[in-house]
Design brief:
The complex is a heterotrimer of chains A (113), B (515) and C (543). Chain A is mostly helical. In chain A, 75% of the residues lie in helices and 0% in strands. The chains are: A mainly alpha (113), B mainly alpha (515), C mainly alpha (543).
C-alpha cells in the first residue's frame, strides 16, 4: 500500500466521519465541525489524486492543488458565515438547536411582512 | 456542445460579453461595500438594467451565429485553463435573471431605502449588496464551463442567498437561515466529492472535454449519483425540502421573490448541465424514472400542503416546492428520437426540452410576481393570514390582479407561459408512452387551481367589514408587480421560433426530424 | 384580410377592447351601459359569413377562427341572447355600486362564449373555453352571499376538472394528427384511426359532459343558476352552456360509426333527461326548476349526439345545433321571465305569464312553435327504436316540469298588485320571447332546408301532442298530491360530496404530519444519503 493510497483511505474515512456527524448531531456547532471534517476529507482526496497524477510522470498535478486552495477558502467562508449565524441565534434565543422551530414571533411592524 | 477538437484556445467574438456579465456584478459588490449607504442602492439600480442589456446582447449573439459563444480565460485552453460558454439555454436563463432582478430591484426600492441624510443602516446595505452578488453568481452559473467554476459559483449563490433569509433578524428566520446554510453545505460537499471522483477518473473537469472522455464505468455513476444528490438537496426536491418553506416565507418579500424565482433554479441548472452536457449518454431509464418519481411526489405533496397553509407566504413557498417537481420531468422525458404515432416525423424534436425550460422560466417570472404581490398585501393589511383577505380585491385591485395572473401561469391556463410548458410536457409524455407523468401533471394543475382559488375567492368577494389599510401602497410598486405578471402572460405568446434559441448547443443525440 | 375574416376577428376584438377599456375606473363606470353593444359584431358575423376563416399569425401556437353552419347558427342566437340580456343587465345595474366589476366578468364570459363558436384550433378553443368557464365564476358569486360563494366553489371545481379532461384529450388529439396540425377538423379527421381513440373519446366526452351537465356531473347547474343574478343566469344557461354543445359538435367524429360510444352517450343522455325532470319537480325556486330543465334538455341533446355517433350520421351535428339554438333562446327567455315577474304585480301578471307559457311549452314541443320544429328535426337521427321512443317520452316529462315551473313562476309575482315592469326590463324579455318563437322557423327553412308542410303533417302533429297531454295529466296529479314529495336540496347529490370532503381533509392532515417528520434534520439528512445511494444503484444496475 503506497502512501498515496493510505492518504486516500484516510480521506475517505474523514468523509465518512463527517457525514455521520452532519446527519446525527443536533447542535449546529457540531454540524459545522463535521462539515469541516468532510471538507478536509475531500481535500485529502484531491491531494491523493494530485499525487497519482505525479506518478504518471507529470510532476505533482497542479490543478487539484489549485482546487484545494479554492476549496479551503470556500469552506472557510462557509464556516465563518455559519458560526456568525449560530452566535446570532444564540443571542436571540439563548439556545442553539435546529431540531425544533423556535416559537413564531409576530412580524415587527416593519416594511416587509 | 461542440466537439472537443473544435475547441481552440480562442474565444469567440461574443465571448467578451460573458466576462462582462460576470465581472460587472463583482465590481458592483465592491463598489457597494466601499461606498456604502445610499450609494449601494444606486449601484444596484444602475446595474440591474445593465445586466439585462448584456444578457440581451449575449442572446442576440448566440441567436445570430447559431453557435455557442465561448471565452477562454487568459488564453489558456482547458484542461489547464477555464472557459466560459453560453449556449441557448444559458442565454435564455441570463435574460430571465435580468428581467426578474430588475423588477425586484424596482419593487424593493421603497422597502430598502436609506433616508436622505440618515446614516447607513444594515438592512438596505446588505440587501442591495446581496442582490448584486446573487446576480453575479447566477451569471457565473449560467456561463460556467467547468465543474469546479460551477461549484464556486454555486457556493457564491448560497452565501448570497442565506443572509437574505434572516434580513429582519427575527429568531425563527435566523434558525431558518442556519438550516438552509447547513443543508446547502451538505449538498455542496457531496457535489465536490463527485467532482473529485470525476477528476480522479478523467483528469479534467471542463464540461466539453469531460463529455468526450466519460465512459460508462461504475466510477462515472458514483460521481453522477453523488453530484445529483447534492444538487437535489440545494434545489429542495422532495423529500429534501426541509429548509425551503421557512426560508422563503421568512425572507422579506423581495428576497423571497429572488430566492424562489432564481436561486433554486441555479442548482437545478447544474443538474441539467450534468445530465445533458457532461454525461449525455447517461439518461438511463431507471435513474431518470427515480428523478421523475421524486418530481411527481413533490408536485402532489407540495400542492396538498399549500392547500393547508394558513399564511400566504407559506402557501406560496410550498407552491414552489410543488412547481420544482415539474422541472424534474425533464429527465425521464429527455429529448430522444421519437416519431409520432401516425408514423410521420414531428415538426420539431426536443419537445420535452422546450417544455421543461419554458416551465423553469415562466415559473421564475410568475413566482416572483406572486411573492411581490404577497409582500404588498402583507404591508397593506399588516398580516398575511389568508382568512383575513376577504374583499381585498376591491381595495387593491392591481395587486390581486398580479397575483391572479401569476396563479394562471402556475395553474397552466392559457394564455400563459405555464400553459405552453404544460402542453409541451403533456405532448412529450404521450409521445414517449409515459402517460403516468401526464396524469400527475393534470392532478398538479387541479391542485394548483385549488390553492390559487383559496386566495382569490375571498379576495374577489364582498367583505362584511370595511377594509382599512395599515399603510398606503405605492402605485409604482403595484405597477412593477403587475408588469412582471403580464410578462408571465406574454411568455405564452412567444412564437415557436423562439424555442430554436434553446436548441442551440444541444448535443446531437436525438435523430432530429427535418424541419 | 377578407371582409369575412375581419368580421370574425371583430367578434372577439370588440368585447376584448371594451374589456381593456375597463382598466381605467372611469371607463369601468360607463361599461355597464354598453354591455348590449359588445355582441353586435358577432350577430352580423353569424348572419353574413358562414364558411369564413382567418388565421392570426404566430400567437399561441397559431390561433385560427372559422365559422361553419352549426357554429353560425349557435353564434347568431347566442349573440341575440347576449344582447337582450345585456340590455336587461344594464337596466338592473344602473346605480349599483359594483356595476363595473359585474361588467368586467360579464365581458370576459361574453368573449369566451362567443369565441367557442368561432375557434378552429385546439389551443384557441381551449383558451376561450377556459375563459367562458372560469369567468362565469364572477357572475355566479356576484351577490356575495354564502350561498352564492358555495355555488361558485362547486361550479369552479367541476369546471376545472372538466378542463383537465379536455386538455388531456386535446393533447392526445394533437398527437395523433399527422403533420402536427393543431386545427380541430384535422384532429377529428384523424381521430377514428388514432392509437389512443378510446382514451381521447372518453376524455372529450367527460370534459364536455361536465360542461353541459350530464349526470352525475350536473350538480353545479342548480346551484349556479339559482345563485346568479337573473341576466347572468339567462346567459349562462342559454349561451355559455352551449360551449359544451359546440364542443361535442366539433370534436365528435360523427362521420364514423362508433356504436359502443354512441350507445353509452345516448344512455347517459336519456338518463339525464329523466333525472332532471324527476328532481326538478321537487324544487320550489323557479330558477332551480329551470336549471333542472336545462339538465334534462342537454340530456336529450346528448342522446341525439349518441344516436348520430352510433350510426355514423354526419348530419346529426347540424340538427343538434338547431335544437340547441332553440334552447338558447327559450331558456334565456324563461330566466328573464322570472326577473320580469318579480317586478310585475298580479294584475298584469298575465302579460308575462302568457308568453312564458308559450315558451315553456315550446320546449316540450307545442305544435306550431319552434320547439315542435326542433322535436321534429331530432326524430331523424334518433330513429324510431327505443331511443326515439324514450326521447319522445321525455317530452312528457318536459311538459310536466314546465307546467310546474309556470306554477312556481306565479309565486314570485310582486307584492304590489298594480305594479308594472318598466320597459327597460320588459323589452329585452319580449324581444327574446319573440325571437324564441320566430327564429327557429327562420333557421328551419333557411339552414335545415325544411318546409312548413312538415309541421302540418297529421302524424307529426299527433306525435307532438300526445306527450304534452300526458305531461299535462301528470302535472295535474302533481298539483293534487305534490305536497307529499320530499324537498330535495338544490344540487341533490352534491351533499354526498361532504363525506368525501371529510376524507380528503383527513388525508391532507396526514400529509401535514408526514411533512413535519420529513422536515426533521436527521430524517432529511439520512434521506439525502439514501437518495445518493439509490441513484448510484439505479445507474449501476442499468448498465
Amino acid at each position: 500500500m503506497t502512501a498515496t493510497t493510505l492518504f486516500g483511505l484516510c480521506g475517505a474515512a474523514l468523509v465518512g466521519l463527517g457525514l455521520f456527524g452532519v446527519v446525527v448531531h443536533p447542535q449546529p456547532l457540531r454540524k459545522i465541525l463535521a462539515f469541516n471534517l468532510l471538507g478536509g476529507g475531500v481535500f485529502l482526496l484531491f491531494g491523493a489524486i494530485a499525487r497519482r497524477g505525479a506518478a504518471a510522470g507529470m510532476g505533482a498535478d497542479p490543478v487539484p492543488q489549485a482546487m484545494v486552495i479554492t476549496g479551503i477558502v470556500v469552506a472557510f467562508s462557509a464556516t465563518a458565515l455559519a458560526v456568525a449565524l449560530v452566535l446570532r441565534l444564540f443571542e436571540a434565543t439563548g439556545g442553539a438547536s435546529l431540531n425544533s422551530d423556535p416559537p413564531r414571533t409576530e412580524p415587527a411592524a416593519g416594511p416587509d411582512g | 456542445m461542440p466537439h472537443p477538437d473544435a475547441i481552440s484556445a480562442a474565444s469567440t467574438s461574443g465571448g467578451a460579453l460573458l466576462v462582462v456579465a460576470i465581472v460587472l456584478p463583482i465590481v458592483g459588490v465592491l463598489l457597494a461595500l466601499a461606498l456604502g449607504g445610499r450609494h449601494a442602492e444606486r449601484v444596484a439600480l444602475a446595474l440591474m438594467p445593465t445586466l439585462l442589456a448584456v444578457a440581451a446582447a449575449i442572446a442576440l449573439c448566440v441567436w445570430r451565429t447559431g453557435e455557442i459563444a465561448q471565452y477562454v480565460v487568459g488564453g489558456w485552453a482547458p484542461p489547464l485553463g477555464v472557459a466560459f460558454r453560453a449556449d441557448g439555454l444559458s442565454a435564455a436563463m441570463a435574460l430571465t435573471t435580468g428581467v426578474v432582478a430588475t423588477a425586484i430591484a424596482l419593487f424593493a426600492r421603497p422597502a430598502f431605502a436609506t433616508a436622505p441624510g440618515g446614516g447607513e443602516t444594515r438592512g438596505p446595505l446588505v440587501f442591495w449588496t446581496l442582490l448584486i452578488a446573487i446576480c453575479g453568481a447566477l451569471n457565473a452559473i449560467w456561463f460556467g464551463g467547468d465543474l469546479f467554476t460551477l461549484y464556486v459559483a454555486l457556493e457564491l449563490l448560497t452565501f448570497g442567498a442565506v443572509p437574505l433569509v434572516c434580513l429582519d433578524g427575527r429568531p425563527e428566520t435566523i434558525a431558518a437561515a442556519l438550516r438552509y446554510l447547513l443543508f446547502a453545505l451538505f449538498g455542496s460537499v457531496l457535489y465536490l466529492l463527485g467532482t473529485v471522483v470525476l477528476y480522479g477518473a478523467y483528469g479534467t473537469l471542463d464540461i466539453v472535454l469531460l463529455a468526450d472522455r466519460v465512459r460508462a464505468v461504475p466510477i462515472s455513476w458514483i460521481a453522477a449519483a453523488l453530484m445529483t444528490a447534492g444538487l437535489l438537496a440545494k434545489t429542495a426536491l422532495f423529500p429534501l425540502h426541509l429548509w425551503l418553506p421557512p426560508a422563503h416565507a421568512g425572507a422579506p418579500a423581495a428576497g423571497s421573490a429572488l430566492l424562489s424565482a432564481l436561486v433554486v433554479k441555479g442548482s437545478f441548472f447544474l443538474v441539467v448541465r450534468l445530465w445533458f452536457d457532461v454525461m449525455p449518454g447517461l439518461p438511463d431509464q431507471a435513474a431518470a424514472q427515480i428523478l421523475g418519481a421524486l418530481g411527481a411526489s413533490a408536485i402532489i405533496f407540495g400542492s396538498v400542503l399549500a392547500l393547508r397553509q394558513a399564511r400566504l407566504k407559506l402557501l406560496i413557498a410550498y407552491s414552489t416546492v410543488a412547481q420544482i417537481g415539474y422541472l424534474f420531468f425533464l429527465f425521464p422525458l429527455a429529448p430522444k428520437s421519437f416519431v409520432a404515432a401516425s408514423g410521420a416525423a414531428l415538426a420539431w424534436s426536443g419537445v420535452a426540452w422546450t417544455g421543461g425550460i419554458l416551465q423553469m422560466i415562466s415559473h421564475a417570472v410568475a413566482k416572483a410576481a406572486m411573492f411581490m404581490a404577497a409582500g404588498l398585501l402583507g404591508e397593506a393589511l399588516g398580516h398575511d393570514r389568508i382568512a383575513g383577505f376577504g374583499g381585498v380585491g376591491r381595495v387593491l385591485p392591481m395587486t390581486v390582479a398580479a397575483f391572479a395572473l401569476g396563479g394562471m401561469s402556475l395553474m397552466g391556463l392559457p394564455p400563459s407561459g405555464g400553459f405552453v410548458a404544460k402542453w409541451l410536457l403533456l405532448t412529450a409524455a404521450v409521445a414517449e408512452g409515459q402517460w403516468w407523468w401526464a396524469v400527475v401533471i393534470l392532478i398538479g394543475g387541479l391542485l394548483a387551481a385549488g390553492y390559487v382559488f383559496r386566495v382569490l375567492g375571498p379576495a374577489f368577494a364582498r367583505s362584511e367589514a370595511p377594509i382599512t389599510l395599515r399603510a398606503p401602497v405605492s402605485r409604482q410598486r403595484e405597477a412593477v408587480v403587475l408588469a412582471l405578471a403580464v410578462c408571465a402572460l406574454l411568455l405564452g405568446f412567444l412564437p415557436l421560433k423562439a424555442s430554436e434559441l434553446l436548441e442551440i448547443g444541444r448535443p446531437d443525440t436525438a435523430e432530429v426530424a427535418p424541419r | 384580410m377578407t371582409g369575412e375574416g375581419a368580421l370574425l376577428a371583430l367578434t372577439l376584438a370588440v368585447p376584448l377592447a371594451l374589456l381593456v377599456s375597463c382598466l381605467s375606473p372611469r371607463q369601468r363606470q360607463r361599461a355597464p351601459a354598453l354591455l348590449a353593444l359588445a355582441p353586435a359584431p358577432a350577430l352580423v358575423a353569424a348572419i353574413a359569413c358562414s364558411g369564413g376563416m382567418i388565421v392570426l399569425p404566430g400567437a399561441l401556437l397559431g390561433l385560427t377562427l372559422a365559422l361553419d353552419a352549426p357554429g353560425a347558427m349557435l353564434l347568431g342566437v347566442a349573440a341575440l341572447l347576449w344582447i337582450a340580456a345585456g340590455l336587461y343587465a344594464s337596466a338592473t345595474l344602473r346605480g349599483a355600486a359594483d356595476a363595473g366589476r359585474f361588467a368586467v366578468w360579464w365581458l370576459l364570459t361574453l368573449t369566451g362564449s362567443l369565441g367557442v363558436f368561432v375557434a378552429a384550433d385546439l389551443v384557441g378553443f381551449y383558451l376561450v373555453f377556459a375563459m367562458v368557464s372560469l369567468a362565469a365564476y364572477g357572475l355566479v358569486v356576484h351577490d356575495g352571499t354564502p350561498r352564492a360563494r358555495r355555488a361558485g366553489s362547486v361550479y369552479v371545481a367541476l369546471a376545472v376538472l372538466g378542463e383537465a379532461f379536455l386538455l388531456m384529450g386535446f393533447v392526445l388529439l394533437a398527437q395523433a394528427t399527422p403533420g402536427g396540425s393543431l386545427l380541430i377538423r384535422d384532429g377529428v379527421a384523424a381521430l377514428p384511426n388514432s392509437p389512443w381513440r378510446e382514451a381521447t373519446l372518453a376524455l372529450l366526452m367527460l370534459g364536455f359532459g361536465i360542461k353541459i351537465g350530464l349526470i352525475p356531473f350536473h350538480v353545479w347547474m342548480p346551484l349556479a343558476y339559482s345563485a346568479a343574478p337573473i341576466p347572468a343566469a339567462a346567459v349562462l344557461s342559454g349561451a355559455a352552456v352551449k360551449a359544451g354543445v359546440i364542443g361535442l359538435i366539433r370534436f365528435l367524429p360523427m362521420q364514423t360509426a362508433l356504436p359502443d360510444w354512441g350507445a353509452a352517450l345516448a344512455a347517459v343522455g336519456l338518463a339525464s333527461a329523466f333525472y332532471g325532470v324527476a328532481i326538478g319537480i321537487t324544487q320550489r325556486n323557479p330558477k332551480t326548476v329551470l336549471a333542472y330543465s336545462s339538465i334534462s334538455q342537454m340530456g336529450v341533446l346528448a342522446a341525439v349526439f349518441g344516436a348520430g355517433l352510433a350510426t355514423g350520421d354526419g348530419g346529426a351535428a347540424l340538427i343538434a345545433a338547431f335544437y340547441a339554438a332553440h334552447h338558447v333562446l327559450v331558456k334565456g327567455g324563461l330566466f328573464l321571465a322570472v326577473g320580469v315577474m318579480t317586478a310585475t304585480g298580479r294584475r298584469c301578471a298575465w302579460q308575462v305569464l302568457l308568453p312564458a307559457a308559450i315558451l315553456a311549452l315550446s320546449l316540450a314541443g307545442l305544435p306550431f312553435t319552434g320547439g315542435a320544429l326542433a322535436k321534429l328535426a331530432i326524430k331523424t337521427p334518433l330513429g324510431s327504436g327505443l331511443v326515439g321512443f324514450l326521447a319522445t317520452l321525455s317530452a312528457a316529462g318536459t311538459t310536466l316540469l314546465m307546467l310546474h315551473y309556470l306554477r312556481r313562476l306565479m309565486t314570485s309575482v310582486a307584492m304590489d298588485d298594480s305594479r308594472v315592469a318598466p320597459a327597460t326590463l320588459a323589452l329585452p324579455w319580449l324581444v327574446t320571447a319573440a325571437a324564441a318563437v320566430l327564429a327557429p322557423w327562420l333557421l328551419y327553412v333557411t339552414v335545415l332546408g325544411g318546409g312548413i308542410a312538415d309541421v302540418l303533417d297529421l302524424s307529426a302533429l299527433a306525435s307532438a301532442v300526445w306527450p304534452i297531454l300526458l305531461g299535462a295529466v301528470l302535472a295535474a296529479a302533481l298539483w293534487r298530491w305534490g305536497d307529499r314529495m320530499p324537498g330535495l336540496p338544490a344540487g341533490d347529490v352534491v351533499v354526498a360530496a361532504r363525506p368525501v370532503a371529510g376524507l380528503a381533509r383527513a388525508i391532507a392532515e396526514g400529509f401535514e404530519v408526514a411533512d413535519v417528520s420529513l422536515r426533521r434534520w436527521p430524517v432529511a439528512g439520512l434521506l439525502l444519503l439514501i437518495l445518493a445511494a439509490g441513484l448510484g444503484a439505479a445507474l449501476l444496475a442499468g448498465h
